[in-house]
Amino acid sequence: MIALLRRDLALAVRAGGGFGLGLAFFLIVVVLVPFGVGPEAELLTRIAPGILWVAALLAALLSLDRIFALDFEDGSLPLLATSPLPLEGVALVKGIAHWVTTGLPLTLAAPVLGFLLNLAPSAYLWLLLSLALGTPALSMIGTFGAALTVGLRRGGLLMSLLVLPLYIPTLIFGAEAVRRGADGLDPSTSLLMLAGITLGSFALLPFAASLALRVNLR
Amino acid sequence: MSIWEYANPKKFIATTTPLVPWVMGLAIACLVVGLVWGFFFTPDDFRQGSTVKIIYLHVPSALMAINAWFMMLITSLIWLVRRHHVSALAARAAAPIGIVMTLIALITGAIWGQPMWGTWWAWDPRLTSFLILFLFYLGYIALWEAIEDPDTAADLTSVLCIVGSVFAVLSRYAVNFWNQGLHQGTSVPVATGERTVSDVFFVPLVICMVGFGVLFLGLVLIRTQTEIRARRMKALEARMRS
């Protein structure tokens, strides 16, 4: 499992593209929002938690179809499926690798982009914490979506349609936590729910993803 | 004799074909009685006026929108466990009906909401979760359409249905947490037996709900038969080509 994780991370870093692309996308969405809604500081402060979360979610979505597609094309996915490592483990590792290459950089970059949107000072800690707790769930749900659509030629668009509704609970609790943090309220309920979704996804979705992979490799 | 005998497509068609006219007849009778009674023979509500009569379309369609997904969940599970093709095809047949029911509920809700709340749409928990349900249906149908191999499609959509159900329930509670809304609570709670709708409106409403349920059953039977026949035609075509 560690070897597979190392391989995926090395591939992601060396292939370039996907690694930085998500971050760049995150930046661009955040830059576009003030152009869309106007530059008033109070307005930006109010919508910043939601915008940051939505932008992070879209950035995570962008790189999802790379999770299995490359391995599927060059034939290493069937090899992985026949390896001693159970396919559930493969799915789990793929989800973790996706998080390390997109979720983690997004989490670390979010506070910087928070300045651009004039985020309330009390919210930075909660932004960091909620993204750190929530983005793993995004990666794991996305891995499931990628596993569902891996055999399809035009799977990317369909995958967004399948995955985005599944992202709704994570988004709600994530943005809510930051909003409460910004208002000086106690965000712990949202954070607990967020952690629950993440842990639940990591516990259950690898099984669903590996089932979908087996069907697609049949 | 067990229920699994009907998993044989031939037996399924043979059994359900004579049933369909009866089921559809009952559905039409229930709907005509319920709707005519509801629309013309109930008094106007003292606050809502005649708009209250939208309830006879709104509540039953909302009920069936959720139950259609529930039925798809059960048939998906049966397909995954017992590999009965009729079960998978029934799930496929139910999805478009479910999405139409969801749309009816949303649209009648908007038409009702406009005079009552002064708005077509509000980000209320109940409304929002129905919109989310609509998106789930959309993804489910799109996945069915996108995959060519029927068995693969049945497997993948079943998995999506199961995972989707979990997330749909989760969204329901998340949305509740996110915003308190305009929509009233349930009018016909099954568990407690108390209700907020008075008897004059309630009897035709129940008839309408039964009518929608039976209509759903009839449509699912017809569409499942169609799917089975379409599958047979494909098999025949493949055989003729080879």
Automatic annotation (TrEMBL), chain A:
<keyword id="KW-0997">Cell inner membrane</keyword>
<keyword id="KW-1133">Transmembrane helix</keyword>
<keyword id="KW-0813">Transport</keyword>
<dbReference type="Pfam" id="PF03379">
    <property type="entry name" value="CcmB"/>
</dbReference>
<feature type="transmembrane region" description="Helical">
    <location>
        <begin position="190"/>
        <end position="213"/>
    </location>
</feature>
<feature type="transmembrane region" description="Helical">
    <location>
        <begin position="43"/>
        <end position="64"/>
    </location>
</feature>
<dbReference type="GO" id="GO:1903607">
    <property type="term" value="P:cytochrome c biosynthetic process"/>
</dbReference>
<feature type="transmembrane region" description="Helical">
    <location>
        <begin position="123"/>
        <end position="150"/>
    </location>
</feature>
<comment type="similarity">
    <text>Belongs to the CcmB/CycW/HelB family.</text>
</comment>
<keyword id="KW-0472">Membrane</keyword>
<keyword id="KW-0201">Cytochrome c-type biogenesis</keyword>
<dbReference type="InterPro" id="IPR026031">
    <property type="entry name" value="Cyt_c_CcmB_bac"/>
</dbReference>
<dbReference type="InterPro" id="IPR003544">
    <property type="entry name" value="Cyt_c_biogenesis_CcmB"/>
</dbReference>
<dbReference type="GO" id="GO:0015232">
    <property type="term" value="F:heme transmembrane transporter activity"/>
</dbReference>
<keyword id="KW-0812">Transmembrane</keyword>
<comment type="function">
    <text>Required for the export of heme to the periplasm for the biogenesis of c-type cytochromes.</text>
</comment>
<feature type="transmembrane region" description="Helical">
    <location>
        <begin position="12"/>
        <end position="37"/>
    </location>
</feature>
<dbReference type="GO" id="GO:0017004">
    <property type="term" value="P:cytochrome complex assembly"/>
</dbReference>
<feature type="transmembrane region" description="Helical">
    <location>
        <begin position="96"/>
        <end position="117"/>
    </location>
</feature>
<feature type="transmembrane region" description="Helical">
    <location>
        <begin position="157"/>
        <end position="178"/>
    </location>
</feature>
<dbReference type="GO" id="GO:0005886">
    <property type="term" value="C:plasma membrane"/>
</dbReference>
<protein>
    <recommendedName>
        <fullName>Heme exporter protein B</fullName>
    </recommendedName>
</protein>
TrEMBL record, chain B:
<keyword id="KW-1133">Transmembrane helix</keyword>
<dbReference type="InterPro" id="IPR002541">
    <property type="entry name" value="Cyt_c_assembly"/>
</dbReference>
<dbReference type="InterPro" id="IPR003557">
    <property type="entry name" value="Cyt_c_biogenesis_CcmC"/>
</dbReference>
<keyword id="KW-0472">Membrane</keyword>
<feature type="transmembrane region" description="Helical">
    <location>
        <begin position="201"/>
        <end position="222"/>
    </location>
</feature>
<feature type="transmembrane region" description="Helical">
    <location>
        <begin position="125"/>
        <end position="144"/>
    </location>
</feature>
<keyword id="KW-0813">Transport</keyword>
<protein>
    <recommendedName>
        <fullName>Heme exporter protein C</fullName>
    </recommendedName>
</protein>
<dbReference type="GO" id="GO:0020037">
    <property type="term" value="F:heme binding"/>
</dbReference>
<dbReference type="InterPro" id="IPR045062">
    <property type="entry name" value="Cyt_c_biogenesis_CcsA/CcmC"/>
</dbReference>
<keyword id="KW-1003">Cell membrane</keyword>
<comment type="similarity">
    <text>Belongs to the CcmC/CycZ/HelC family.</text>
</comment>
<dbReference type="GO" id="GO:0017004">
    <property type="term" value="P:cytochrome complex assembly"/>
</dbReference>
<feature type="transmembrane region" description="Helical">
    <location>
        <begin position="156"/>
        <end position="175"/>
    </location>
</feature>
<comment type="function">
    <text>Required for the export of heme to the periplasm for the biogenesis of c-type cytochromes.</text>
</comment>
<dbReference type="GO" id="GO:0005886">
    <property type="term" value="C:plasma membrane"/>
</dbReference>
<feature type="transmembrane region" description="Helical">
    <location>
        <begin position="93"/>
        <end position="113"/>
    </location>
</feature>
<dbReference type="GO" id="GO:0015232">
    <property type="term" value="F:heme transmembrane transporter activity"/>
</dbReference>
<feature type="transmembrane region" description="Helical">
    <location>
        <begin position="20"/>
        <end position="41"/>
    </location>
</feature>
<keyword id="KW-0812">Transmembrane</keyword>
<keyword id="KW-0201">Cytochrome c-type biogenesis</keyword>
<dbReference type="Pfam" id="PF01578">
    <property type="entry name" value="Cytochrom_C_asm"/>
</dbReference>
